[in-house]
Amino acid sequence: MSINLDVLNRRFENEAVESLLACFLESHKGRIALASSFGAEDQVLTDMILNIDPLGKIFTLDTGRLPEETYALMDQTNRKYGIKVDVYCPDRTALEAMYQAQGINGFRDSIENRKTCCHVRKLEPLRRALSELEVWITGLRRSQSPTRETMRLIEWDEGNGLIKLNPLIEWDEERVWDYIKTNKVPYNVLHTQGYPSIGCEPCTRAIREGEELRAGRWWWENPEHKECGLHLKREKQ
Ligand code: SF4
């Protein structure tokens, strides 16, 4: 696919997020979706997208290991907006094989095991979801972690072969919460208990004062390993 990312990024860098979303939702109708893990940023984008297009597509990856609070928020979100977020689950055969190979909590035993678990429970279902799309929307923000500093507003996701749109890339945490409070957007109660970043229940803990925002994810690993592979950067210009 031939797209000039520099031109696109320049065109939209000073636009309101809602304008950017409206433009992409219209030009890629039916082939664009938000990948939501029900984090604060995803909830902001859910609200914006459904205000623009009540039929806007939102999907999530149900790893089978999410916290109860996230399932409660999924239910609350579906009810508030009158939608059913699309759910992609792990492939049953791969899940059963992984269990036989590494046990139920093998992800704690090695980085390799952890990456296998993230692959089976997240990456493969994500690839299935993205195979139907031209654009995926994420709630990534540059200031969330060192692994996200070089991300851009609009990128080409080489690994999955589609455009990746990061509308909140320049937002800070305060702006996210201002939007949530002002617009009465539902959010995960774990955010009020020291969890700025929420993933699977066994791989997420609350952070301590002064720790970076994703310090509570896979806290037993070094920072450079702390991505599950969903957002590994392999774009071309
Ligand atoms: S975050 Fe943990 S439980 Fe979830 S898929 Fe990755 S390793 Fe498995």
From TrEMBL:
Keywords: Cytoplasm, Iron, Iron-sulfur, Metal-binding, Oxidoreductase
Active site per database record: 228 (nucleophile)
Subcellular location: Cytoplasm
Named cofactor requirement(s): [4Fe-4S] cluster
Stretch forming the signal peptide: none
Pathway participation: Sulfur metabolism; hydrogen sulfide biosynthesis; sulfite from sulfate
Family label: Belongs to the PAPS reductase family. CysH subfamily.
Protein name listed in UniProt: Adenosine 5'-phosphosulfate reductase
Lineage, uppermost ranks: Bacteria, Pseudomonadati, Campylobacterota, Epsilonproteobacteria, Campylobacterales
Gene: cysH
